[in-house]
Amino acid sequence: MSKMASNHPVTAADKLLDCLLSVGIDYVFANLGTDHVPIIEALARRRQDDRPSPEFILCPHENIAIHMALGYAAATGRGQAVMVHVDAGTANAAMGVQNAARTRLPVLLMAGKAPFDVQGAVAGGRDNYVHFMQDPFDITSLVRAYVKWDYVLMSDVNLNEVMRRAHSVMQATPPGPVYMVMPREILAAPAPHNEQVFPASQFGSTELGGLTSAQLSEIGGRLFRSKSPLVVTSYLGRDESAPAVLKRFCDVYGARVVEANPTHMNFDRSDVWAAGFDAARHLDSSDLILMLDTDVPWLPKFAAPRPGVACIHLDIDAGKSDFPMWGFAADVRVQTNTLIALSQLTEYGEQTASADFKVDIAQRRERLIRSAASVPAAKVPPTVAALDAKSILATLNGMLATTDIVVNEAIRNAPVVLAALPRTEPGTYFSNAGGGLGASGGWALGLKLACPTRRVVQIVGDGSFHFCTPTSLFAVARSRRLPILTIVLNNGGWQAVKEAVLRMYPEGDAFQLNAFEAGLGSTDSNFAMVAEAFGAKGYQISTMAEARAVFEAALNDIDGGTAVLIDVKLPSIA
């Protein structure tokens, strides 16, 4: 604990701030309310006494707060705190909690609770009309479906233990969100500061190990017998050492790699073993499927391995216990630290592979190299071509550094982003696995906070951008000096909705009338002005001839410290 100043009272709010520091939480992404008054007072006291506190980053909307925390955790692996206002703030943050759960990112969401004292018996009791309105029967029910742990703080007595427990659970493999509720009266109460300390060495998070010798022998034997193994992964790259580990594995066993709905940069996408992003294209030609850290490797309605082809599933979350339905069969399924397991399998292969097997792998590699060489090189899009997402992003690709970070929330254009902006360096690609749109803006800010020397580019559809709370996004970008580049692929609506209708009713009445209830009229809007209202630069691209000059100006702007939005006017879906 920090040394307490003798002339100031110690409250549970003081202890809370010390506890946050004790578990390594440096940032609190906050949208505060009447329930946080004791914390605000404690922060002021600590400034007067020159005592440390986590840095509070004020966010005008909870959507930005929680997704900034997720972006920071994605870059560092370290969960941070988000502080929101009672049930209203929890509800606004709930979509981010779902995204955290599905993308397996640690975050501590803390909400105040409407005061329980009505008659003024204790400090912090109800003193405002809203305290009666924001008191649900079960506040945790707003997020319980997606959190790993929840707790209502009843006293300062066990605050250290509660905070250590929250941190341990959120960081335990697989990591995810946790939720804590704090009544105002508890935070305002005087508190001693001599309670027991719970160090990480004794109360830290749990980790998974590798394969047993029997599992190693069985899986390694299957790999030796395979002539065309296929790896399918989505989030192996959460650890930046993963691409190199997977590369070494592929060199030993001759496996090709598909990144299915990738949330991270899992593999060098220019590598000879890289096989794109659609496993369905390779299932018929593969005699062994190795699923590594993936939730939806392919869509069973449209594709499946050939009968008799073995599937092996190695995953930090092999059971998918928080998915009500999950139906991907496997002959071998192991919950494991996938990177450790891959390293074990690689060493096993290096030590036991026969000379003939090594020759076969070398021949596989040469065939792939020759096949790649026969594919014509991609042409630079002409400036007179029709405006489309692929051409626009291909123009940008030649202007980005290999270390620049891309955040992909282009939804139906997400495959275009993957193909047009191939990332080759670890930690340079992120996408949200959850269903909550509007994640990428806060995510990009959190990544920039964690990686201040690197460019961060978020690419978002106009439908998602509406969910992104844009004014809050650019307000925080300005106040925290986080110059990110936002590219809005603006096709005037929700292409995903239109495509969903056509998949179910390809020649239905909606098709006949061209009435998909998906048009938002966004192409007639000027998103650039939203950015400019908060001190960012705004640009539009309406023709290919404008693209290169606009991108050059935008990259210069963010390099100079100013956030930028580019509104790319694609043909309207309506």
Number of domains: 3
Distance between the termini: 60 Å
What would you call the shape? globular
Radius of gyration: 26 Å
**Helical fraction:** 25-40%
Count of helical regions: 21
Output the CATH topology of the largest domain: Rossmann fold
Structural class: alpha/beta
Written description of the protein model:
The chain has 574 residues and is α/β, with parallel strands linked by helices. It folds into three domains: 12-203, 3-Layer(aba) Sandwich (Rossmann fold); 213-373, TPP-binding domain (Rossmann fold); 389-569, Thiamin diphosphate (ThDP)-binding fold, Pyr/PP domains (Rossmann fold, 3-Layer(aba) Sandwich), CATH 3.40.50.970. The protein contains 21 helices and 17 strands. α4 (86-103) links the parallel β3 and β4 (107-113). The longest helix has 19 residues, at 355-373. It starts with 11 loop residues before the first helix and ends in a 5-residue tail after the last strand.
In short:
With 574 residues, the protein is of the alpha/beta class. The protein is 39% helix and 15% strand.
